[in-house]
Design brief:
This protein is an alpha/beta fold and about 500 residues long. About 50% of the residues lie in helices and about 15% in strands. It has 20 helices and 16 strands.
Length: about 500
């Protein structure tokens, strides 16, 4: 078959378009890496103890296998705490004297990542991931990472968590038998408050010669989660973000329910917060149960250490943290992801290659089985896959951590995970949620204890703090503080 010059001219645009498409596709899939000239990457994180050991072991494995093959060498550095890491990142961005250079990759919560993104310092990860690859990750985890104004991905999901409730089953059982209180009663926040009052009164009655020496039953780690998730359960987004614009919702009626179900039992001694974390308070016997992250399961004590000696305890686990009565079954989605500093194609490409490897099911579950973090791939969230990795890798996994992960896997279909979208001044606003009510409760609890020591009953001592007037004063102060931190007028 022959072709005329005219037919060739007609085909040229089509042919050239095909060539162009083929060429661009080839360029898009071509790796900029060279094993003979490896790229060196630095990773900053906040892992410590067994979490750091697990992460470092995976980094070493990557360097010895895929990294060596592709030409990527990763060095990881713990910056200490989350706060220390955030400070180091801000110092690097601002060029503070003595600060280290920005790392290629660093762990980051959404609020901090948003700040760095606003400074133009984060790489667009969307261009290094196909839609097929993105579809393998839990949808809400990917959505959380789309913090750029154009909706492109800036946070790579690497390890997630939610909240659970754990309790000292050994010391719970005598109380439950004596009062008829059941674990089922702890499904709601109001039920926890009622149980906590009963526990305070029961322990107070154990020493009739010492008045008002009842003990606290419950505590919680994150107050910010209490506000964000509690309000969401009641149908309100306290931080409502649309198209980058924040609406600050602080309706009085819903906040009154949060106040009554945390501040009041704290002031009366039914709830407690003594050490740095509530698992510390369980260990000292100051409380029996707490709401905390899945990552806290590994720290739940095996024994209680009191002044008169120590005793072993067993634990019980409630997957869904208590919700407000009649509220939506909503659980927090939390856990830092990894972000990539904006640099050049080789470093950004290499960083994403490492993160894709780290989040493969077998690697992510190896890390999660030690740390208590949930894997980020849809296909990795199962007991079968977890046990397969544990057996294949010969891992020694604490039963508390495994039970926690398996329990969450079993409830993922019925749980609605939520995290608010990022916004300017988000970190400052979250700190108000974390500290404002908790600090007020601690100060007022101290005043109540002082009055009790002077002979007042608990009800007499607490009365000035738990009424409507006290709530109104706190509500005004809280709204003012939140508006000041967020830089936004609230909808009251």
């Amino acid at each position: 078959m022959g072709y005329t010059r005219r037919s060739v001219r007609k085909m040229c645009p089509v042919f050239l378009a095909a060539v162009l498409i083929f060429t661009l596709a080839g360029c898009g899939s071509r790796s900029p890496l060279d094993p003979k000239d490896p790229v060196s990457l630095t990773v900053w994180h906040y892992y410590n103890g067994s979490q750091q050991m697990a992460f470092d072991a995976l980094v070493e494995e990557f360097n010895d296998t895929v990294g060596r093959e592709k030409g990527i060498y990763v060095q990881s550095y713990s910056q200490g705490s989350v706060g220390d890491l955030e400070t180091a990142v801000r110092d690097a961005i601002n060029g503070k004297v003595g600060a280290d250079a920005m790392p290629d990759i660093f762990s980051s919560y959404a609020d901090t990542a948003y700040e760095v993104e606003q400074a133009g310092a984060l790489a667009d990860l969307s261009s290094y991931l196909s839609q097929e690859e993105l579809d393998r990750y839990v949808d809400s985890y990917i959505e959380e990472g789309r913090i750029a104004a154009d909706g492109t991905l800036r946070i790579f999901p690497t390890a997630k968590s939610t909240e659970i409730m754990m309790l000292n089953k050994t010391d719970w059982e005598p109380f439950a038998a004596a009062t008829g209180t059941a674990l089922e009663d702890l499904r709601t926040i109001e039920g926890v408050v009622e149980a906590a009052q009963a526990y305070y009164e029961w322990t107070d009655d154990l020493t009739p010669d010492i008045p008002e020496d009842g003990k606290a039953l419950y505590g919680r780690d994150s107050m910010a989660n209490y506000f964000i998730i509690g309000m969401k359960q009641l149908g309100v987004e306290i931080f409502q973000v649309e198209n980058g614009e924040l609406t600050l919702n602080v309706p009085k009626e819903e906040l009154r329910r949060l106040w009554e179900n945390y501040y009041v039992p704290m002031v009366k001694g039914w709830f407690g917060a003594y050490g740095k974390f509530r698992s510390d308070d369980v260990k000292t016997g100051d409380i029996l149960m707490y709401t905390g992250s899945t990552t806290s399961a590994m720290y739940f004590p095996d024994q209680v250490e009191r002044d008169d000696g120590s005793s072993p305890i067993e634990y019980a686990l409630m997957v869904a943290a208590p919700i407000f009565e009649g509220g939506e079954s909503c659980a927090v989605q939390q856990g830092a992801g990894m972000v990539v500093s904006k640099s050049d194609e080789r470093h950004e490409y290499a960083a994403v290659e490492f993160l894709k490897w780290f989040t493969q099911a077998e690697n992510n579950l190896q890390f999660g089985s030690v740390s208590g973090y949930l894997p980020v791939l849809k296909g990795a969230n199962s007991r079968e896959k977890l046990d397969e990795v544990i057996q294949a890798q010969g891992l020694t996994v604490a039963s508390k951590t495994r039970d926690c992960l398996v329990s969450v896997f079993g409830e993922m279909e019925s749980l609605t995970f939520y995290t608010n979208k990022s916004f300017e001044n988000g970190s400052a606003a979250r700190k108000v949620l974390e500290h404002h009510l908790a600090d007020q409760a601690a100060a007022d609890r101290a005043s109540v204890l002082k009055a009790v020591a002077q002979g007042a009953s608990l009800e007499e001592a607490a009365a000035p703090y738990v009424g409507t007037e006290s709530f109104e004063a706190w509500y005004t102060s809280f709204c003012d503080a939140l508006e000041g931190a967020a830089g936004k007028q609230a909808v009251r």
